[in-house]
Design a protein that fits this description.
The complex is a heterodimer of chains A (308) and B (308).
Chain A: H1 2-9, H2 19-37, H3 39-56, H4 58-61, H5 98-133, H6 137-151, H7 154-165, H8 169-196, H9 199-206, H10 211-219, H11 224-247, H12 259-266, H13 274-302
Chain B: H1 2-29, H2 34-39, H3 45-55, H4 61-73, H5 87-122, H6 127-141, H7 144-158, H8 170-200, H9 203-210, H10 215-252, H11 258-268, H12 271-299, H13 301-306
Helix pairs in contact in B: 1-4, 1-12, 5-6, 5-8, 5-10, 5-12, 6-8, 7-8, 7-10, 8-10, 9-10, 10-11, 10-12, 11-12
The chains are: A mainly alpha (308), B mainly alpha (308).
């Protein structure tokens, strides 16, 4: 089904090109129709949309006062307030509203997720496409590098990179991004290998398309399905790993309200104030849950074998 | 079979040298001078120059890397900056604890994941299956560092069933191994379920039913044998996740293992320890994957025959 799209895309010059946009729409339409049927996937989508709204409206829900940003307004007379009443998630050891911190933290998590996925996806897709398209020495060199990265357990690799670059949000994003490259590279390589030998590639080459054009216009569009699924699941992994690195003190520094860092702070008080532990963790789990369900749904929706 | 194992070992060696290169480079680019870290800020210029020569830090990059590889081959990982004791001694002393934790978690995840996956597949679309699927998705989504804290709050602080921290008695082992094992159990369960579903629909299963074989026997000795092949790979890959998870779990439960020690070493900038630790864990991970591949060839004659 995907092959058709490109074939139309590359219809000989002069043929009526009006058919193109309609075709394109119907392809996405197909996927969306199948995606929509899955209740769990729609639930996941609902969670993520709600989270984006929460992140966008953080400044409205928890506005800054004259001195401090909304996530760092302290009320030392009201520390460790239990959930309910004025503070629905309670307050922390500085009397800061936990809900305000989670809302602001949503911005950080989504930002981290996007940046990390961009780093891993751009690098991984490039490496995977080169590797799959040019077999031989290039393929060998790239794949051995990927093997090496895969030989170090994911979190351990991220930890070693952050340890070398130094703690901080930017370095965490680089570290998790680099650790995520092998996943994309492998998936893209595999699908490039299967597309490469098809006839429309030969056709494109015969009309004089160069390698760059063949890869970017003909091969990659046909590998989008697994890339999109991997990016969705990868974003869940990215947010989780970044939170884990912040949790062990390598990530974002206080008073920034990153969820993993909030959990790390709450550790000292967990015996007496469970609510400090509860809500940041629920926030992380909810995002991961939502993204995983969307990923599952997309995988099924893209799978032509399940098409009726 | 010998040929296969030798070939597989031969593939492992360059990857391990590559891993050494990555780890060495990461330490090399790290800002901060190890000599100053050992001698302190007040050191005399002469001492600095001498120690630098003694450690080989005045040599070019590749020479230093060569020395690193040569030393590593002789199990010489250098000495810790902070304690002054050999790295091998420091990490070797904590390594068994981490391995014990990882092994117990694997056992737990397999014991929970595989039976639930089988039941889920056999009773597809029943309440049990749906429930297990949702629990599985939750298990994948919950960050294990948060799960660990919640288990402490529930089972140690409130119910008083298990001790909160430490690793001395079997009672200490329960919560940490479950903390790491549960998310892997969820992944293994999902994999077992989908693999079983694929196998159960095949013709030879129908044949077995047709000849009047007992259902329990069909599931256990016909279906499971084939369904387990992809599951074995997942279990092997989980081991990497478990080793990474140990960093977090050991921190939460204050377990005197390698993971927690490495986190502390990162904070103390004790690079020889980090280098040695990552290298050792990567080696273990590669070795486990080697075992998985051998096991794979052992259960699946089709794979074995490729290496004849």
């Amino acid at each position: 089904m995907l092959t058709n799209k490109v074939a139309v895309d590359e219809a000989p010059v002069g043929v009526n090109a009006d058919a193109k946009p309609r075709k394109k729409r119907s392809q996405m339409h197909d996927v969306w129709k199948r995606f929509r049927k899955s209740r769990t996937a729609m639930f996941g989508l609902f969670i993520i949309i709600a989270l984006i709204i929460l992140a966008l409206s953080a400044e409205i829900l928890a506005p800054a006062d004259a001195i401090n940003p909304g996530y760092d307004i302290q009320d030392l007379g009201n520390t460790f307030a239990p959930p309910g009443g004025e503070h629905i998630f309670g307050t922390d050891n500085f009397g800061r509203d936990i809900f305000a911190r989670i809302a602001h933290g949503a911005r950080i998590s989504l930002y981290v997720g996007f940046v990390v996925v961009s780093i891993s996806m751009v690098t991984g897709v490039t490496l995977g496409a080169l590797s799959g398209y040019y077999s031989g020495i290039i393929d060998n060199v790239i794949m051995r590098i990927i093997d090496i990265l895969l030989a170090i357990p994911f979190l351990l690799l991220a930890v070693s990179i952050v340890a070398a670059l130094g703690p901080g949000l930017r370095n965490v994003m680089i570290a998790v991004g680099v650790a995520g490259i092998p996943g994309y590279a492998r998936i893209v390589r595999a699908s490039v290998l299967s597309v490469r030998e098809q006839e429309f590639i030969e056709a494109a080459r015969s009309v004089g398309a160069n390698n760059f054009r063949i890869i970017t216009r003909h091969i990659l569009p046909n590998c989008m399905a697994p890339i999109i699924v991997q990016a969705t699941m990868g974003m869940a992994g990215a947010i989780l790993s970044a939170a884990a690195l912040s949790f062990i003190g390598l990530g974002i520094q206080p008073p920034q309200p990153e969820w993993g860092a909030m959990l790390a702070e709450s550790r000292r008080f967990m015996r007496d104030h469970w609510h400090m532990v509860m809500f940041p963790g629920v926030a992380i789990a909810t995002v991961i849950f939502g993204l995983n369900m969307i990923g599952d749904g997309l995988r099924d929706a893209f799978d032509p074998r399940l098409k009726k | 079979m010998h040929k296969f194992i030798l070939k597989r070992l031969g593939m492992m060696l360059p990857v391990l040298v590559g891993v050494m290169f990555v780890i060495f480079t990461l330490t090399y680019i790290t800002p901060g001078d190890p000599v100053m870290m050992i001698l302190g800020d007040q050191a005399a210029q002469e001492d600095i120059v001498n120690l630098r020569a003694e450690l080989g830090l005045d040599q070019p990059f590749l020479v230093q890397f060569g020395m690193f590889v040569a030393n590593t081959m002789q199990f010489n990982f250098g000495t810790s900056f902070t304690t002054g004791r050999p790295v091998l001694e420091e990490i070797g002393f904590r390594f068994p604890t981490t391995m014990q934790l990882a092994a117990m978690s694997v056992v737990i995840s397999v014991l929970i994941g595989i039976p639930l996956g089988i039941l889920s597949a056999v009773k597809q679309y029943t309440i049990f299956d749906n429930g297990a699927t949702i629990i599985g998705l939750l298990g994948v989504s919950i960050p294990n560092f948060w799960l660990g804290m919640m288990l402490i709050i529930l089972f140690s602080v409130n119910l008083g069933w298990f001790p909160t921290t430490g690793f001395e008695t079997p009672m200490h082992w329960v919560l940490p191994s479950f903390t790491i094992g549960i998310s892997s159990a969820a992944i293994i369960m999902r994999m077992t379920r989908s693999s079983m579903l694929e196998v159960i629909r095949q013709d030879y299963i129908r044949t077995a039913r047709a000849k009047g074989q007992k259902e329990s026997k069909i599931i256990v000795s016909h279906a499971l044998k084939n369904a387990l092949i992809p599951v074995i790979t997942v279990v092997g890959l989980q081991f990497g996740l478990l080793l990474g998870g140990a960093i977090l779990t050991e921190t939460i439960y204050a377990i005197p293992g390698l993971g927690r020690f490495m986190v502390e070493s990162i904070q103390r900038r004790d690079y020889p320890i980090i280098q040695g630790g990552v290298l050792l864990l990567a080696l273990v991970f590669s070795f486990v994957n080697l075992l998985v591949d051998i096991l794979y060839a052992f259960v699946d004659p089709r794979i074995r025959s490729q290496y004849k």
